[in-house]
Specification:
heterodimer; A: alpha/beta; Rossmann fold; six-stranded mixed sheet; 11 helices; globular; B: mainly alpha; two-stranded antiparallel ribbon; 1% strand
Chain lengths: 284, 306
């Protein structure tokens, strides 16, 4: 089975507020998907539905399971770290390792211990006595020692300093990811995940605004920094958006090939954060 | 042996869930009875040096012992009875512990958001809730009873010592050979669990409140029934709820005269508690408890965060 998540017209509302409306996505084996949106855009709601943490309307199948009613079965194949620190403060590090070993059939204790040995986390301390960075490292060590098909990370680096963040993603790629697994990362820190994603989904007001592979995205969207004498010619090519920063204009083009654009100036890739801003703020 | 019980090697979800509850509620389950037992022994030693021993039923232990020396047949009942009631303070404390534990088991995990971590593991809400229930109504009392036995062994030795020091009788004759040890153990186990079964609807109500309460489960758990009782009184001049709650204690009392010295042995007295199972009221309570637990499971399934 290569299709891991299949959602068709997924909706969820809280009272009159539509947190998700008519969301359809499909996520396959081997992808690293960035689910990107502002605060309150519906990222966590969508993740919660996928993880079986909340009910929903519409069709949703995750690894062939109905997440809400088969959460315990599903969790044998899925791991997640949510946006808040969820390891309880009273648990000691070695107790947390034991607990996961006890409840998870595909947990590899030796692996977890070896991850922990690379850190300075003491085994007999309580989680409440660890620093924020250590708690995330501990959680990641536990999760990475589980042989799961799908890993969901909801704002995993929130509140971490920049050194930890970098390490976090490096470790994820080096020690965990392979083509049998799928990772979903939600974040609004677009820049730090840009280089590791294979696919990207933008979400706003509970709707999917953009859903494409990174390859396709880089192919389609380009930034042109025109040389001063060719600005008007470049503008004549009908750029998708014109941006001005520090007195220099640059154009964002959709679906123009690089060779054509090169005649007018420097062509760069469009960063995800700029694409996000472009798609989310503008009118079609 | 203790270390194999408290460590996990390999996949064993039920054991892991029980250990998790034990680690989480260690203070209520283990530390509290340990401290009470320690204090009991400390005070008893001080009281013994003081001269009287413990006060039981308004008389000092010395008085009980001297009385028992002249009572012939009933001496065994008095001695056994003294040993049986000696852990009373402990058992009352553990009762309170159970109330507080049942009010927090499904609340604290939502408050500190650790429920999201537990839910990221392949265990069902049903398993979680049932293990939490069993922790409150089985593990907690069993550990308490282990400490009760320590108190009882200590009390027995203390009474033996007092007889040996203060009287001309032999400690063996008056105390050690006189105590019905089987009755002591049965008296620790049977009334405790029968009482828990009778109060099960109350315990599970506390758990249900802890599963939906957003702020203070303790307050809600008492205010809801109080308001209901008052409204019932005002609008219907009824007392159905009050009677139902009171019945948890009064029905059992009818069967519970375990120190009836007149015509029954202590063991018979304990055994008669089982008769309370024939009350319809008992089974209505059990049915309520089952409904509350189903409610807890549904709430846990839906409520991921407060």
């Amino acid at each position: 089975m290569t299709n891991y998540i299949n959602a068709k017209s997924l909706s969820k509302s809280f009272g009159k507020f539509n947190a998700l409306s008519d969301v359809s996505i499909s996520i396959n084996k081997g992808q690293i998907v960035g689910l990107i949106g502002s605060n309150g855009a519906g990222k966590t709601t969508l993740i919660n539905a996928i993880l079986g943490l909340s009910s929903f309307e519409g069709e949703l199948s995750v690894l062939g399971f109905d997440p809400h009613n088969q959460r315990d079965e599903l969790m044998k194949e899925v791991c997640f770290i949510s946006d808040v620190a969820t390891l309880p403060g009273w648990i000691k590090v070695h107790e947390a390792v034991q607990f996961v070993e006890g409840v998870h059939p595909s947990f590899n204790r030796a692996k977890a211990i070896s991850f922990l040995e690379q850190t300075s986390i003491p085994m007999d301390k309580k989680v409440s006595k660890l620093s924020k960075g250590m708690i995330v490292q501990l959680h990641l060590a536990l999760i990475m020692a589980i042989d799961a098909k799908l890993l969901v990370l909801d704002e995993p680096t929130l509140g971490l300093d920049i050194l930890y963040r970098k390490k976090f993603y490096d470790q994820l790629l080096e020690d965990y990811f392979d083509e049998e697994r799928t990772i979903i990362i939600t974040t609004h820190q677009v820049d730090e995940v840009e280089n590791i994603l294979t696919d990207v989904i933008f979400i706003r007001d509970g709707k999917i605004m953009y859903d494409a592979s990174m390859e396709e995205t880089l192919e389609t969207w380009k930034t042109l920094d025109p040389s001063t004498d060719k600005i008007d010619e470049a503008r004549a090519l009908a750029p998708y958006r014109e941006m001005t920063s520090l007195g220099r204009s640059s154009f964002i083009f959709k679906g123009k090939d690089a060779e054509t654009l090169k005649q007018f100036g420097d062509v760069r890739r469009l960063s995800l954060s700029n694409l996000f801003v472009t798609l989310m703020t503008g009118e079609e | 042996m203790f270390s194999t019980l408290t460590t996990i090697n390999g996949y064993n979800p039920i054991k892991a869930l029980f250990l998790k509850e034990f680690w989480d509620n260690k203070r209520a389950i283990l530390v509290t009875p340990m401290v009470v037992t320690g204090l009991f022994i400390l005070f008893a030693i001080i009281a013994m040096i003081n001269g009287n021993g413990m006060m039981i039923d308004g008389a000092s232990m010395n008085d009980h012992i001297s009385q028992a020396q002249h009572m012939g047949e009933d001496a065994a009942k008095i001695m056994t009875g003294l040993i049986m009631v000696s852990p009373m303070v402990l058992m009352i404390t553990v009762g309170f512990s159970m109330v507080f534990t049942s009010l927090s088991v499904l609340f604290d995990e939502r408050k500190d958001k650790s429920i999201l971590f537990w839910k990221s593991m392949p265990v069902s809400d049903t398993q979680e809730v049932l293990v939490k229930l069993a922790t409150v109504i089985i593990v907690t009392p069993l550990i308490a009873i282990a400490f009760a036995l320590i108190i009882q062994v200590f009390t027995t030795l203390m009474m033996g010592a007092m007889v040996a020091i203060n009287s001309d009788y032999s400690a063996w004759d008056v105390v050690f050979s006189n105590v019905n040890y089987l009755a002591v153990i049965a008296g620790d186990l049977i009334p405790t669990f029968i009482f828990i079964l009778w109060t099960l609807p109350i315990i599970t109500w506390f758990m249900l409140v802890s599963s939906f309460s957003r702020r203070s489960p303790f307050l809600l758990a008492f205010i809801i029934p109080i308001l209901l009782m008052v409204s019932e009184r005002i609008f219907f001049n009824g007392s159905l709820l009050r009677d139902a709650i009171a019945s948890r204690f009064t029905y059992l009392e009818r069967y519970g005269d375990r120190f009836d010295f007149e015509d029954r042995s202590i063991l018979e007295g304990i055994g008669s508690l089982f008769g309370s199972f024939s009350e319809l009221s008992f089974w209505v309570g059990i049915a309520f408890a089952v409904a509350m637990i189903v409610g807890c499971i549904q709430m846990r399934k839906r409520n991921s965060i407060t």
